[in-house]
Amino acid sequence: MDVLLDFGARFLHQLQSPTLAFLLGGILIAALGSRLTIPDSIYKFIVFMLLMKVGLKGGMAISEADLAAMLLPALIAVFVGCLIVVIGRYTLAMLPGIRTEDGIATAGLFGAVSGSTLAAGMVVLENDGIAYEPWAAALYPFMDIPALVLAIVLASVYLKKKDGSGEKVQIWPIVKESLQGSALSALLLGIALGLFTNPGKVVDTFYEPLFRGLLSVLMLIMGIEAYARLNELRRVAHWFAVYAALMPLVHGLIAFGLGYIAHVLVGFSPGGVVLLAIIAGSSSDISGPPTLRAGIPTANPSSYIGASTSIGTPVAIAIGIPLYIGLAQVVFGS
Q1: How far apart are CA 239 and CA 100, in angstroms?
Q2: Closest by CA position to 192, among listed 33, 332, 32, 52
Q3: pLDDT averaged over the chain?
Q4: Which of 153, 307, 314, 328 has a CA between 20 and 30 Å from the CA of residue 12?
């Protein structure tokens, strides 16, 4: 009983963090009818800045990392991203009233990774003084790319079987499209620059001081967008709402369990386990939607984007992050 009370207290404490407050504040002012809008160009610039900083720090860390220690968490990230898509394909996509391609696209979006949720998780961990491997953020593409590619492949196979064309699915164009997406391009560029150059000064003097402020604006935008997308979600099957509310936590807990195995086998830190769970519990808000629009054009964007933005992301940030931190404090000790 004491353990549950302790966990509950820590969970409530996490809900009061500034990062989560901006998200909830955005939802609140949108619900009250505020006309506040932030231009899409500013949103894209903020995401670019955040992912470049994450990539630069991750690349610098990889250059100094024990690659043997990083290998298992990276393989787990690939496995979890693919597993999330497979789970969605044989649960959500098979429910009554759900078009199969809509269900697969939704699973692909939830298997991919949200850069904003990753950034929020890193800030919360740092605010709480929870250490994690600097290269842990670089697990992002190991989960993101396989999930998107697998979702598009599964949808393509299903649609080709449905129309009886028998045409083979070309994998490489799908991979190429994913890699050329704006979010992954920024992240991979940052990783490469951090890995092969020495960007420490520009990170410390430019990216680092702006990081938390830009993240707070991004969380405000995400909150406003989440409320705006609620109307879209009401127009599609209620199963999407159930999936978006429950599965981010299921995905995160699966990753937490596998991350614990990596902790035991290769010494993956508790903070790294939490960050892996946060990544798995997120749903792509930048790289995923345009990639899936192009790869599964018959899927309804209102289904997968509405489910992700209006419910999935708030659940992943407001509930998932404090949940995994509280769980880690119970499992690993304070």
Answers
A1: 13
A2: 52
A3: 84
A4: 307
